[in-house]
Amino acid sequence: MTARPLALSLLALCLAAGAAAAHHGWGAYDAARTLRIEAPVEALQWQNPHVHVMVPHEGRTWEAVLAPPFRMTARGLDPEMIKAGTRVTVEGYPSTKVPTELRAERITVGGRTFELR
Amino acid sequence: MYAELLAALESSALGHAARHSAWLFTLANLLHVLGAALLVGAVAVFDVGVLARRGREAWAIAPTALRIAAGGLLLQIPTGLVLLAVEARALGQNPVFLAKMGLIALGLVNVALFHRRFRTMDDLAAARPYAAVSLGAWTLALLAGRLIAYV
Prior knowledge:
The structure holds 2 protein chains of 2 kinds. By secondary structure, chain A is α+β, with helices and mostly antiparallel strands. Helix content of chain A is 18%, strand content 36%.
C-alpha cells in the first residue's frame, strides 16, 4: 500500500507546521457596526478569492474586501470601473481582528450602487 | 521548510492563475464540492454497510464504492491544490486546514490498514472499528474543509 507513507508524511507535515498563525475568515467581521468610507481608491487587487480595494480613512489606509471576481463581473463591475484614483463609497463591517480592514457589503461608484452579497 | 513550500506554491504560475482567472478558481471550487460528495458519499455507503450488516452486503458493493471514492479523491487533489495556491501562505497555517489534513491522513492510514488486514469477507465483522474511524475521519475532513473559510 502506497497510501500509508503518503498519509504519514502528510501527518508529519501537519505536525511540522506547528502552531498556526491567525488568519481572518468570513466570520471575523462585526456585523453590528456599519462603516462607510467615501474616498478615492489607492490600489486595486482584482483577484480570487476576493477583490480588495485600498482606501484612505482617518489618516490610515483601509483594506476593503469586496466580492469574488466572478461575482463582481456578474453584478456589473469590472477592474476599469474601480481602478486606482476612482472615487468610491464602500459600506460594510469592520474586521474584529485587523483594525483597518472592512468587509464591504456594497460599493457605490459613478452614482451606481452594487450589492456584493 | 513548510512555510517556504507554501510561499513557493502561492507565487507559482498556478497560484497566479488561480488568483487572476475567475473561471479556474470557480471551476476548482465547484469540482472540489463534487469530489467531496463522491468521496464521502461512497465511503459512507461502504462503512454503513459494514457497521449495520456486518459486512456481507458491504463486500458486494465494495468495488463500486472504492472506485467512486478513488475518483472523488482524484478530483480533490488537483482542485484542492488550485484552491490552496490562491492564498497558500495564510491557508496553509489555518488551524482548521491543518486539522483537515490530519483527518485525511487518518482516513488514508485507516484504509491502508483495512485493506492489509481484510482480504476476504470471512472476518469482516471485525472491520467495524475501521468503518467507524473511516466514517468519522472523512465526514469531519469534509466539515473542516467548509469551515476553513470561517476561521
